[in-house]
Specification:
With about 180 residues, the chain is mainly α. The chain contains eight helices and no strands.
């Protein structure tokens, strides 16, 4: 898990770095297609930019699609109080696995209906980003409760780090909203 987090943050850093040195520096702040993003990377990666970008998109797809569809399935079945888990066989959790299938088909269908996938990706990230602060808040309340967590309740250091992370995510969300308003 730690190795995965390190790699994802390293990849994120280089995405931000390459975006800042190519797209923003060239005055391109509105990217409407994957082809446009790949073309903007040519000053950094040369003629192979389109292949590099395609490999990145495919890699992100292999990581993001299962996480996002499964996350939606967990959210749905837990909201309606039904059982479901990747630990269960499909025959034991039909609604859970069916939700994964439906969410995947809807996402593919949106692409064929002409929705801009780049814009949809940005908005899905924003929606998920807005859910993080309240979820962290609830997790911090639950993980400090010894009746709920027993001997695994948060200690002082973990509580400090958790509440700091919660406060920073709330602040980042408020800053995003402020940039939209101002």
């Amino acid at each position: 898990m730690v190795v995965g987090m390190l790699f994802s943050n390293l990849i994120l850093y280089f995405i931000i770095l390459s975006t800042g040195t190519t797209l923003h520096a060239a005055g391109q702040t509105e990217i409407e297609s994957a082809a446009q993003a790949a073309a903007a990377l040519e000053p950094l990666a040369g003629a192979g930019a389109k292949y590099l970008f395609a490999a990145g998109v495919v890699g992100v797809g292999f990581l993001a699609v299962p996480v996002m569809t499964t996350g939606a399935a967990y959210d749905f079945v837990q909201t309606i109080g039904r059982p479901g888990s990747l630990n269960a066989r499909p025959s034991e959790a039909r609604l859970f696995y069916g939700t994964i299938l439906v969410v995947t088909l809807v996402a593919v269908g949106l692409n064929f209906l002409g929705f801009n996938p780049m814009r949809a990706l940005v908005w899905s990230g924003i929606v998920q980003g807005f859910s993080v602060p309240p979820l962290l808040f609830l997790m911090m309340l639950m993980t400090r409760d010894p009746r709920m967590m027993g001997e695994r309740a948060n200690g002082r250091l973990t509580a400090f780090l958790g509440w700091t992370t919660t406060a920073v995510t709330f602040a980042a969300t408020l800053c995003l909203v402020a940039t939209w308003i101002l």
